[in-house]
Amino acid sequence: MGLWFYICFSCSVAIQCLETVFKIRSEDVQLAAPYTLEEVFSQAHLQKDDITPAESPSSAPAAMEKAEQLKDEGNNYMKEQRYEAALDCYSQAVELDPNNAVYFCNRAAAHSQLGRHHDAITDCEKAISIDAKYSKAYGRMGRALAAMSKYKEAIGSFQKALDLDPENESYKSYLKISEQKVRQVPSPTSAGWGFDMASLMNNPAFVSMAAGLMQDPQVQQL
Ligand SMILES: *[C@@H]1O[C@H](CO)[C@@H](O)[C@H](O)[C@H]1NC(C)=O
User: Fold this and answer.
1) Which residue has a Cα nearest atom 4 of ligand 1?
2) Is 150 helix (H, G, I), strand (E, B) or coil?
3) Does the CB atom of residue 139 touch ligand 1 within 6 A?
4) Within its chain, how far is the Cα of 125 from the centroid?
5) Of 2, 19, 47, 65, which sits with the fewest C-beta atoms within 10 Å of its C-beta?
């Protein structure tokens, strides 16, 4: 009984929908098409390509062209160090064409210049989700992470950038700098001891004492 009601209800809703969409009534028998369903579908399929741009305005050629213009405008603002204006242009470009990784990556650069490293990282992640082989987005994310003193994560980003663009000298030097920073920054445990573990490990007297201790059978028992 319930199922029967459901089917009937669905049918009447479906009929209503069809009537509304096609502005017809089920009484309009003279509209009964002299085509089979298959013919109707193949016809619809042929027309699909023609109507696609009109149906998705965000990927319409005009919108994409406008987005490119906004990107160029943004790039010019970046050169003039007008970062807020550049950011605004890139944001508009992103609105018009949200599938272009370059717009997100460029906006990340503007965020970075404005000190908004967190926003820069979010935009880099977005760019990478669109184009996983976009080395520049990894490089930029690495720099934002480094600016936030997140050197370990930065190393991962720079390595990824270098994987994709192995010749890039900038990535090599950024990677090296982050690796040095990781070594310099006291680890949480050594910071707790109130002395610089890294410089202690560079002290020859300490190192030889430690080496001697390691040889000590009693210490080895510990
Ligand atoms: C290396 O990467 C940086 C940042 O993405 C870019 O500005 C530079 O042009 C690249 N250099 C080479 C040699 O490709």
Assistant:
1) 136
2) coil
3) yes
4) 3
5) 2
Domains of the chain: 64-183 (1.25.40.10)
The answer to whether the beta carbons of residues 128 and 134 sit under 8 Å apart is yes
Nearest CA to ligand 1 atom 9: 168
Q: What is the pLDDT of residue 212?
A: 74
Those residues whose C-beta lies under 8 Å from the C-beta of residue 38, and which sit 6 or more positions away, are none
Mean pLDDT of 30-51: 50
Of 172 and 14, the structure prediction assigns the larger pLDDT to 172
The torsion of the CA quartet 143, 146, 147, 149, rounded to 10 degrees, works out to 170
Cα–Cα separations (whole angstroms), residue 104 to 10, 123, 126, 193: 44, 5, 7, 43
Confirm or reject: Cβ of 168 under 6 Å from ligand 1. Answer: yes
**Cα distances (Å, whole numbers) of residue 194 to 71, 185, 188, 189:** 50, 13, 10, 9
pLDDT winner (highest mean) among 29-38, 52-61, 174-183: 174-183
Q: Could you give the CA distance from residue 204 to residue 222 in angstroms, rounded to a whole number?
A: 24
Q: State which ligand 1 atom lies nearest to the alpha carbon of 170.
A: 1
Q: Report the chain's terminal Cα–Cα distance, integer Å.
A: 78
Q: Where are the alpha helices (DSSP H) in the chain?
A: 2-22, 37-55, 61-79, 83-96, 101-113, 117-130, 135-147, 151-164, 169-184, 188-193, 197-201, 204-215, 217-221
